[in-house]
Every structure is written in C-alpha cells, then in structure tokens.
C-alpha cells in the first residue's frame, strides 16, 4: 500500500454472493490502488466473506468484529486511520 493512499473501510459484505458483494468487488477490481486502499469489516456470523481470497491476495485486510465491544475497540484504535 502506498503510504499516501486514502484508506477506505467497507462494511456490509457477507458470505453470499449477491448484488452488494458483486458491486463492491467491481469497485475493488477497478479502483486505482495507488490512490485508494480498501479494507473490510466482517461482522457476520461466518468468519469468511465473498471474494475473501481475492481481497487478501491484493493486500487488503479483513477485520472480524462480532458485537458492540469489538466494534468500539476497533473504532477507538483506528480513529483517524480511515
């Protein structure tokens, strides 16, 4: 990741391949990664999301947050990063 890249945090992906997941994958594949770095939050019951292998292979992170406490800790720790 370019240190000057804007970091974007995406939530809402699930394991099922549907319209949201397909749209986000399209954006992910076509976005200029020298300008934008995309990371993902998985707050679903399953520990994997659609297109997970592709996301990780491109150097993005997937954060697994289950419950309000994990969300609060993550947001506090990463304030100003995204």
Description:
This protein is of the alpha/beta class and 82 residues long. The chain contains 3 helices and 3 strands. It has helices at residues 19-30, 52-57, 68-77, and strands at 6-11, 36-42, 62-64. The chain has a 3-stranded parallel β-sheet with strand order 1-2-3. The chain is flat and about 35 Å long.
Provide a short characterization of the protein structure.
With 82 residues, the protein is of the alpha/beta class. Helices cover 34% and strands 20% of the residues.
Task: Outline the secondary-structure elements.
Blueprint: E1 6-11, H1 19-30, E2 36-42, H2 52-57, E3 62-64, H3 68-77
Parallel strand pairs: 1-2, 2-3
Keywords, separated by commas or semicolons:
3 helices; alpha/beta; 34% helix; 82 residues; 3 strands
Distance, first to last CA: 14 Å
Biggest sheet, spatial arrangement of strands = 1-2-3
User: SSE string, helix = H, strand = E?
Assistant: EHEHEH
Secondary-structure class: alpha/beta
Give the assembly state of these chains: single chain
How many beta-strand runs? 3
Helical region count? Answer: 3
Strand content: 15-25%
Mean pLDDT: 92
Instruction: Return Rg in Å.
Output: 13 Å
- As a percent range, the share of helical residues equals 25-40%
What's the overall geometry?
flat
Largest sheet data: 3 strands, parallel
Spans where pLDDT lies below 50 across 5 or more residues:
none
